[in-house]
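Why does this matter for the project? Reviewers at the last site visit asked to see concrete outputs rather than summary tables. In response, this paragraph embeds two records directly. Each consists of the residue sequence and, immediately after it, the corresponding structure tokens. Nothing has been edited or filtered.
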Amino acid sequence: MIQNYAKPRGRPRSFDERQALEKATKVFRSKGYDGVTVDDLVAGMGVGRPSLYAVFGDKRTIFLRVLRAYTEAKGALAAKALFSPQALRDSLAGFLRHIVETATEEGSTPGCLLVCVAPLVNDAEVRQFLQDVAAVTMALVERRFCDAISAGEIPSDFPVAARASQVMDLARGLTMRAQMGTPRKTLLKDAEEAAELVLLPRRGNAVPES
């Protein structure tokens, strides 16, 4: 008996879209946004020029997609480290270690797409995206401190907002040092010590933190 099968429309894709975006991430981390050309993306992503435009769009669109995918993947791991069921000090150390590991991951240019590349892009949507990510991350760190207050790990007058800002600054500093070539081993050690510093009690007569 002869059966009629519908023929697939067009040629099947010869690439994985997610993997192509991961490759694009490495291209942008390596050359920065302004330094990347469409030819760089074609070569780096392993996608033909017609497919690149048809599936991903132009360079700006690709960068925005890469930025969102990168943030979603790295952000989920950072939140997991921050809210792991362990002592606050260990959670903070785990969060900062994750930052270091991301900034020094093998096969990628040292640094971070969000800290070392995206802030240099002159684009309103990119700037707003970075502000939103920073606000969400800040809120997560503050929530972790509030959870620790509820659990009795830190006093109720702990300066949550100020110390959360300190954690954010430490994370950015570790990332920038990675970009400048500081060894991973050194940064991981510093991440552990940074977690201790964040939890130091206020000095009795010190000027209140704002």
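We now turn to the second protein, recorded in exactly the same manner.
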Amino acid sequence: MLYSLVAETKLYPRTALVVLTALNLLNYADRNVLFAVQPLVQNEFHLSKAQLGYLTSAFLGFYMVAAPFVGPLADRYSRKLIIAFGAIFWSGLTLLTAVTHTYSELLIRHTLVGIGEATFVTIAPTFVADLFPQERRGRILGIFYLAIPVGSAAGYLLGGKLGPDHGWRFPFYIAAAPGFLLALAVLFLKEPKRGQFDSVKDVVEGDLLPKGFGGGLVKAAFLRVFFYLRELWHLTIVLFHNPAFLTATLGMAAMTFSLGGIQVWMPQFLYSERHYSLASANFMFGIIIVVDGILAALAGGWLGDYLLRRMKSSYYLISAASMLLGVPFMIVALFVRGPMMVPAIAVSAFFLLFNTAPLNAAVINSVGAHIRATAIAVNIFIIHSLGDVPSPTMMGWVADKRSLQAAFVLPVIAMVVSSAILFYGMKFAPTVRVDGDPHRPAAI
């Protein structure tokens, strides 16, 4: 009996981590399929590059607007139910790609998928953070965010392989199907207690309505919305007065601008500017993303946790340094032809992805557990509104006016900006508990 209990205690967090990581992988595979088949979509609907980029901007626009409304709900109600509902919603919409026959229909489908995916990306990191002790958070999030490179690569490979032979819609069906099964698996997970391993404890009230409320259903619904929005606004103001959260978020926004633009336009750049076939361009970039992403996410998470024992600003330092180191390699990758191009793309992608786990850990550690989903929702709104919502369209506009190669100047500038903000944010990093000892703060 005791052995069974111990085994369940050890296996449950890992099982939950695997399920949520797999669902996160599908999330990124779904959104990256479009990048792989963009030339096919452009040819069918006769689009400009700015219109093509706007598909991603609209997706992320609705995604970021939905996030602040989902976050406070997750701070009060069952996170696994919201995650499961969102996964079913976005998987179903992805299957509806079969009936999109105009640019407007594809745009509507893409924006609605953004709303569904916001429910997962806002909530799942808080679920994962509560499964494991705080000093292991960088490594655990490194595993969870492996889904970004692996899922992105899966999207590129699916689209690049299946799109030219079976049409650009077919890869979306493959990306959508497993989402329904994983959504059901989430329902069987045991939800962890909020903030059970955190150094900082905070409280949240149980209901949005005032005590003794005796109004009708319509009035109750109106008041719930009113108090909900008022609380959301109040929490947003609080977060804006939190320099640890704000600098990590703004640094992530600049990084997201760079990464978002590169993900959207790199396959097309290799196809149209460097004259690779569509399949080979997606295959090469997909392999780079998956190999670099796995190595970078694990290494970044491990190094952040290792240095956290010596300096509380380790997550900020690693993220800032990796962004700065990636700049010269990105310049070579984009503006130097010949045998140096592919290795430079690989190295720059590694440094760009290296900060994924530590930077997300910095955001999570900057706030208390009971407002964490709200904080992540606000973080999502900011990083996308300043990052990969404008970058694909801006790069598409520059490409239409000049060239796609000229457009890549924008993500290079964003990398420098991100590094500067995160170096500045080091002095605001909060002290966290290490090795489970609340009386032993990190150094520096």
